[in-house]
Amino acid sequence: MGFSMGLNLVLLLAMVATNILSLYHLSSTLQSPKPPTQQPVPDHLLHQLNTIRATISHLTRHQPPSINPSPTTTKPSIPQDLLLYSHLSSIASACHNHPDLLHKYMTYTPYSLCPLDSDLLAESLILHGCHPLPRRRCFSKTPPKPPSSLPHNPFPSSFLDSNVIWNKYPSCKSFSCLAKQSPGLGFDLNTEISKFMTYKTELDLPIPQLLQVAKSANSVIRLGIDIGGATGTFAARMKQYNVTVVTTTMNFNVPNNEVVAMRGLVPLHVPLQQRLPVFDGVVDLVRCAHAVNRWIPLTMMEFLFYDVDRVLRGGGYLWFDHFFSRRMDLSKVFGPLIGKLGYKKVKWAVGNKTDSSGLKNEEVYLTALLQKPVSK
């Protein structure tokens, strides 16, 4: 502030001096008995005017000196992590890489309903690292008859088809179709109602056991995040234990977000590479669901793990639920990456992945419950 005030004072004095010299020259010209003949400006006056102009020009370009100037100071380089994150994370800088998708997304008739492909195009852009701005001057279509209230039981007897705009989904036009066509995606309530409640193998961690572990450690679980939680079954079950869990989920051509909302829960439509939209150290539990697995690029996975660490409070829990990878990668890559967090291992169970893909690629499942240290 002191430098700025000094600079303003010098500029003011310079302008005053310039005006005085100009008036002096003008008055001497007016008092001349021979107006037709123009008097030359004295050399000393021109010299003073040029000096003042040069001073003003120099001062206006001058920048305040650094506190600790160094003769070898160079322009700071952009951190490599930031450059890498700009390609992985869902920020606007990635949008210019996909002009074809953006062109489709922004093609619509103003002041009418938005095209039905809005959600699918937006999701494609998000997955490519571009969160598009909302469309201007078109209106989103919504289901015509929403329910009058949210269900007290997040496991209703059935989901109402009228709560979904089915035209945007190519394969099925009803929940009964989804339950038959994709039985493992969370739309079959007869299957979902038993999840997270039974213990069949070491890879299972039933919710009663999870809560008992926390109670034994004199810890509490009140708030949680379910990363990649599909239709929100985990959040639905935790709601019955008076625990609030928000679910991050993408649709992938099925109405995951709509179902989470229909259960009276909160869906967050964000991809795995996006910064979790909650503040630091405010949640007690983060569950990494089946979507977090070896297909995620390693660097993106590291960003995810440390963002989870950011939102977890001290003493909170990180739960890897059936994380799958190659057996060799688990011991040499993912295990050491998880170990860098420095969390306490409450549970660490590894079992073979017995489906065709698992047998072909020598894959295993990892279920791990880790507790963040209270202080570091």
From TrEMBL:
<keyword id="KW-0735">Signal-anchor</keyword>
<keyword id="KW-0732">Signal</keyword>
<keyword id="KW-0325">Glycoprotein</keyword>
<keyword id="KW-0808">Transferase</keyword>
<dbReference type="Pfam" id="PF03141">
    <property type="entry name" value="Methyltransf_29"/>
</dbReference>
<dbReference type="GO" id="GO:0012505">
    <property type="term" value="C:endomembrane system"/>
</dbReference>
<dbReference type="InterPro" id="IPR004159">
    <property type="entry name" value="Put_SAM_MeTrfase"/>
</dbReference>
<dbReference type="InterPro" id="IPR053223">
    <property type="entry name" value="Prob_Methyltransferase"/>
</dbReference>
<keyword id="KW-0489">Methyltransferase</keyword>
<keyword id="KW-0812">Transmembrane</keyword>
<dbReference type="GO" id="GO:0008168">
    <property type="term" value="F:methyltransferase activity"/>
</dbReference>
<dbReference type="GO" id="GO:0016020">
    <property type="term" value="C:membrane"/>
</dbReference>
<dbReference type="InterPro" id="IPR029063">
    <property type="entry name" value="SAM-dependent_MTases_sf"/>
</dbReference>
<feature type="signal peptide">
    <location>
        <begin position="1"/>
        <end position="22"/>
    </location>
</feature>
<comment type="similarity">
    <text>Belongs to the methyltransferase superfamily.</text>
</comment>
<protein>
    <recommendedName>
        <fullName>Methyltransferase type 11 domain-containing protein</fullName>
    </recommendedName>
</protein>
<dbReference type="GO" id="GO:0032259">
    <property type="term" value="P:methylation"/>
</dbReference>
